[in-house]
Amino acid sequence: MEAKFVPNIVVGRLPLYLRTLQLMNQEGRRVTSSQELGERLGISAAQIRKDLSQFGEFGKQGTGYSIDYLTDQLRQILHVNKVWDVAVVGIGDVGHALARYQGFSNRGFRIVLLFDNDPQKIGTYVGGFIINNISNLVMMIQEARVQIAMLSVPVEHAQQVTNILIEAGVKSILNYAPINISVPTSVHVQYIDPVLHLQRMTYYLD
Amino acid sequence: MEAKFVPNIVVGRLPLYLRTLQLMNQEGRRVTSSQELGERLGISAAQIRKDLSQFGEFGKQGTGYSIDYLTDQLRQILHVNKVWDVAVVGIGDVGHALARYQGFSNRGFRIVLLFDNDPQKIGTYVGGFIINNISNLVMMIQEARVQIAMLSVPVEHAQQVTNILIEAGVKSILNYAPINISVPTSVHVQYIDPVLHLQRMTYYLD
Question: The whole model's pTM is what?
Answer without folding.
Answer: 0.84
